Amino acid sequence: MTLRSILIHPDPRLKKPADPVTAFDAELRGLADDMLETMYDAPGIGLAAPQIGVMRRVLVMDCVKEEGEAPRPMALVNPVIEWSSEARSVYEEGCLSIPEQYAEVERPAEVEVSWSDPDGSPMRQRFEGLWATCVQHEIDHLDGKLFIDYLKPLRRQMITRKMVKLKREMARG
Ligand SMILES: [Zn+2]
């Protein structure tokens, strides 16, 4: 397994829709493993392939937060939201591509998602709570959308300016 570097917003690859996966092979399983390792290392609860510059419809997540509870790594390939609840919920979201910036985002409280696992087996599950927010946030990444796109333009621009500055500092080392 290899740690991949995470792209920081703004980056054109974070604004581009990702391509569907067609080959369920060892390379795909390696990608999912790398993404999980990178996510846990960050640490984060979700990561989408475009965030490491791979323009394919793959996301990983693990929203288990309780100390001592067993981790529950999930890798979703070609995920599709099949159903969203009328009920909505608000979570303070963050993003590994937008470090240290958080904002409340309202989304459907529950979603039903279908996907393939990295071996190509079809899966379908309903998510609620933090898992529902996380899976929607990550699927947005596959469509080139970031959580700051839900914010008012002024707030979004402010965050983007901070990220431009951060990237400049990181480039300087
Ligand atoms: Zn994100």
The CATH superfamily turns out to be Peptide deformylase
User: What's the level 1 CATH class?
Assistant: Alpha Beta
The largest beta-sheet arranges its strands as 1-2-3-6-7
Largest sheet: 5 strands, antiparallel
Low-pLDDT parts are none
Q: Determine the number of helices (DSSP H or I, runs of at least 4 residues).
A: 3
Ordered list of secondary-structure elements with their pairings:
Elements lengths: L25 H16 L4 E3 L9 E4 L12 E11 L3 E8 L2 E11 L1 E7 L5 E7 H14 L10 H20 L1
Antiparallel strand pairs: 1-2, 2-3, 3-6, 4-5, 6-7
The protein binds zinc ion.
Zinc ion binds next to helix 2.
Description:
With 173 residues, this protein is α+β, with helices and mostly antiparallel strands. The protein has one domain (12-172): Alpha-Beta Complex (Peptide Deformylase), CATH 3.90.45.10. The chain is built from three helices and seven strands, in the order αβββββββαα. The protein has helices at residues 26-41, 129-142, 153-172, and strands at 46-48, 58-61, 74-84, 88-95, 98-108, 110-116, 122-128. A five-stranded antiparallel beta sheet has the order 1-2-3-6-7. The structure holds zinc ion. Zinc ion binds at residues 95-97, 137, 141.
